[in-house]
Request: fold
Amino acid sequence: MIQTEFTGEDNEFVYAGHRLRIGDHGTFVLCNLHCRELGRHCHIDYCQSESEENCKLGNQGQHINEKVQLNPDRSKDFISHKLFWERTEQQEFSKCDYECSDKMHNKFQGSSTPKSFCELQLFHAHLNPSSNLLNNIGYISLDGHHFNCENPSTHKAVYYIIFVLNHSGSMDNRDKKPIPNFPIYNKLIKNYNNRIGTVYQAVYQFMDARINSAQANQNQILSATRRDSISSILFDHEVFNFARGGTSYELAIQKAGFLITNYFDPKKENIIIFLSDGSCGIPLNQHHIICKQNETKGFPLYLYMVLFGRNSHSHSLEEMAKIAQSYHPTNTSSGALRCQFTRTMNEVNLVSHFTNVAESLRNHKPALLKKIK
Ligand SMILES: [Zn+2]
Ligand SMILES: [Zn+2]
Ligand SMILES: [Zn+2]
Ligand SMILES: [Zn+2]
Reply:
């Protein structure tokens, strides 16, 4: 006796932990093996002839005359397991194997957006990215594939930004002070009329530039998950400890890595803006571990190292930026962000550098990275 797997009365039901839907070719996750576990059974699929007279399924199927749920007006057939899988595989495996490179599909740490494959036939001719889509669904990638998902180049990049700021004794030095006539100047000079006060001013300007760029995109209503998140870490020889001492880059970068792991969001790029006035050894091991972890997730870190103060150079800050950049793909588009080391000589340099970084984040199109294939 034939066991009928889909009754046609329920749109959706669960078998062996899998949620199944009627006639939804290729989109449900019933694996052939699970299906076999049922023993003899049949499936329901849309009729490919649309009428009983033309429906010639032989001994592999039977036209259904009643209306069956999920688009009841489209006629359906009972079909054999064999025919069902022939159709599914034919559809699925004759198609192009290129995937949409949007990080929204990255499965790491629970992105809910499934992978999206090119809708065209395998070895199709590459489409012109500016040509019109027949069905107006999805987009054509720069390399000529058609995906049914949202065009990633229209996404506005969103970030998790971590400021890692040296707060050691030397940051009290008054050789650098907040710039007068800038916002929050009067508040800052009460307690921070020194190097760290200037840094706070630069951070303030940075935030202001990010807020302005969000407002400039008012036509895109951003949900809470599509907004930047910000953290700041103050360090000297310890993190979050105001005792004046030396400078530990190791603890600082370790803390930043910890925050990124704990608050990981596949919709956000991770940016670290690391500022110091002094030199300190490079925490090589720790730094490589953090860069590697994030590269593996498909989200290499963007590290902005900033030297501020009297020192004219910092080998360690420069080297940390180079190491972080080495974990990025080499074939990125010219507009992509890059890890960098910058020496800021004075207050004006520092504030304008932070504003420039904010500006570069605004122009960044995360998903325009070229995919290696
Ligand atoms: Zn039929
Ligand atoms: Zn089956
Ligand atoms: Zn394709
Ligand atoms: Zn996509």
